[in-house]
Amino acid sequence: MVRQEGASPSPKKRKVIKLANRLGASATTCILDVLVNDRPGLMRDSAVFMDILEKIWKVCDVEASEVWAELDHRLKLAEDMRATGTRVRKGGRIRSTKLP
């Protein structure tokens, strides 16, 4: 389906765009908190960032539990690699995109 010239995006698309803009602004705020060493601000603003991210997942039909499971898997892989002293090298024996 080709969008007609001048046609506005769907309500879902508009919502995702609005949330994406808010997410970018929130990420910028977190970066500023790091730069000025504002630990309480970083904790507060990181929570806002995560809340907006979860809203984006919901609009895009992504289950938060699946994202957290993926993150958990990557962290476990990193822990296993540290425990065995495995270092990832290009062309090495560990071939995974699951690294943190």
Please describe what this structure looks like.
This protein is an all-alpha fold. The chain has two domains: 9-62; 63-100. Helix content is 67%, strand content 0%. The chain has helices at residues 11-35, 39-59, 64-84. The radius of gyration is 19 Å and the shape is extended.
What brief labels describe this structure?
100 residues; 2 domains; mainly alpha; 3 helices
Tally of alpha and pi helices: 3
- Low-confidence parts: none
Number of strands: 0
- Radius of gyration based on Cα positions: 19 Å
Amount of helix: 55-70%
The H/E string reads HHH
Cα(first) to Cα(last) distance is 38 Å
Largest sheet: none
Give a quick rundown of the structure:
Helix 1 packs antiparallel against helix 2 (39-59).
Q: How would you summarize the topology of this molecule?
A:
Elements: H1 11-35, H2 39-59, H3 64-84
Helix pairs in contact: 1-2
